[in-house]
Amino acid sequence: MAKHRAIDDNQLHTIATGWTDALLICRKCSRKLDGGFGKDGKETLRRAMRAALRTSGQRGQVGLIEVACLGVCPKHAVTTARASQPGNLLIVPEGTKVERLLQPVAAA
């Protein structure tokens, strides 16, 4: 991958990510929950998802992006949005096996 140079030519530039999808994770929900995922229930959703992607061989295919509040604040859950389905928000209750999020959206 080429190094990025300062953009001063007033043109739009694109950078390939290699992702097939991206999961937007509400930072505010994650902080309120303070863990709740993973084997011991002590990991954040983002960290547990990263481990699940690595285990399933999908590392680098799904972007995990923490974003500001998504406007839905459930108790004991984290609000997420898939870039492939921007019309739907997905509420992930604490304790959910994150492998379920790796399945197609209809099955999740």
Features:
single chain, 108 residues, alpha+beta, four-stranded mixed beta sheet, 2 helices, 18% helix, 21% strand, globular
Describe this structure in words.
The protein is an alpha+beta fold and 108 residues long. It has one domain. A four-stranded mixed β-sheet has the order 2-1-3-4. The longest helix has 12 residues. It is globular, with a radius of gyration of 16 Å. The mean pLDDT is 87.
Give the total of beta strands: 4
For the record, the count of structural domains works out to 1
Question: DSSP strand (E) fraction?
Answer: 15-25%
Main sheet strand line-up: 2-1-3-4
Mean pLDDT: 87
* Structural class by secondary-structure content: alpha+beta
Helix content: 10-25%
Which shape, going by the Cα principal axes?
globular
- Outline the biggest β-sheet: 4 strands, mixed
- If helices are DSSP runs of H or I spanning 4 or more residues, what is the number of helices? 2
Taken in chain order, the helices and strands follow as: EHHEEE
Distance between the termini: 34 Å
Radius of gyration: 16 Å
Stretches with pLDDT under 50, minimum 5 residues = none
Describe, in short, the structure shown.
This protein has 2 helices and 4 strands; from the N terminus they run E-H-H-E-E-E.
